[in-house]
Amino acid sequence: MLAQPASAERSEMVQLMNEHNYFKNQDLLNHFLDSLPNIVLVLNSNRQTVFANKTLKQVLNYKGIEYIGRRPGELFNCKNADLTEGGCGTSEFCRTCGAVAAILRSLDGYSDIQECRITTISGDALDLRVWTNFIDLNNSRFTIFTMWDITDEKRRKMLERIFFHDVLNTAGGIKGFIELLRDADPEEIKEFEGIIRALADKLIEEIKAQRELSLAELNELSINILPCSSHKILEDVYYLYVNHPVANKKELNVFYEKENILFESDPLLIRRVLNNMVKNALEAVDEGEKVTMTSKTENDTITFSVHNPGVIPKDAQLQIFLRSFSTKGTGRGLGTYSMKLLTERYLKGKIDFTTSVEEGTIFNLTLFYKNSN
Fold it and tell me: DSSP string covering 85-139, please?
């Protein structure tokens, strides 16, 4: 069950400064906190920072005491921290935030350790491990908030698990069909050769996809701007999946806009994003149900859409573009995260979705383009 958003109430600056000065005058505490390599905050009962160690100032480049009064998500530029007037902890997205949960638990008198996934305003994805404990001083309760940046650790482990899973599955399929060749008749050999070739292509594609995602996260992915055709892009994705095992006993349709739009972008990255959209949609529907691909243009934008009749659960909606979140089980799936990363950082477009019982689920890839005519 999802937690309720935290209180929006904030302390007045006079109170914040009094609390700050109290901790500032604790020389032993100051020396101890400044000796720690991790960021440490002291939060008051309204989850506002009243004191921070030197590491915070070094890592986030805060000067003086400008951090006072800010909540953790506001310090780290979490994109959800300014969605409501109440700030960090008060939006519906904060109901799944490990940092908010850990802080609230400390205010109830318990220590806690949680993981927190943050997407910053600039689009960077951070994975944090947070530890909280409470301390009662001057008839007030404070939270000692410590955090570790585990972004690289989580990224490496996630990529390794997915890579090994996908590669081993495909390699296992190749091995199985090679063994079948021993007792196959000529007609079967011809059929098996085609399957093995397709599996080998899939294996190469999976390796390239993982390499591409690794480079993308390191800001080292090169893009290749070429003339693109809206009809051709939809056609390529359609023929890739119409006979794909994931589409077995399901219907995949494509509706072409009357005018074929010619524009300049990176067609490989566009297809990568759309491939993920279509595959996720096909995995989400039952036998006999339909997935539909379309495109439409408006002014200087082109939007590719993928529709399926399913509905995304509320808790998944709130986390769907986060790196560490997956509906496919532990260590599985980077599809929606990579879609957002490639679209916003490299294609300079945007990705969003709508989902409802009445309309089903629609993912949209919107690109701002220059006509190549």
Answer: TT-TT-SGGGGG-HHHHHHHHHHTT--EEEEEEEEBTTS-EEEEEEEEEEEEETT
Residue whose pair of structure tokens reads 């397709």 in the numeric block: 198
Reported as a pLDDT band with limits 50, 70 and 90, residue 330 is very low
Distant-in-sequence, close-in-space partners of 360: CB < 8 Å, separation ≥ 6: 307, 308, 309, 310, 311
> Which pLDDT score, from 0 to 100, does residue 162 have?
60
The pLDDT, as a whole number, for residue 165 is 63
Reduced to 3 states (helix: H, G, I; strand: E, B; else coil), residue 165 is helix
For residue 274, count CB atoms less than 10 angstroms from its CB and return exposed for 0-12, middle for 13-18, buried for 19 or more. Answer: buried
pTM over 0.85: no
CATH 1.10.287 holds for 152-221: yes
At residue 169, the pLDDT reads 67
| Tokens describing residue 62 | 């805060």
Does domain 224-373 sit in CATH 3.40.440.10?
Answer: no
pLDDT at residue number 200: 81
Tell me which CATH code domain 13-149 carries: 3.30.450.20
**How confident is residue 314, by pLDDT bands cut at 50, 70 and 90?**
confident
Spell out the domain ranges in the chain.
Answer: 13-149, 152-221, 224-373
Give whole-number Cα distances, 78 to 91, 113, 118, 122, 190, in Å: 12, 20, 6, 9, 55
Amino acid at 274: L
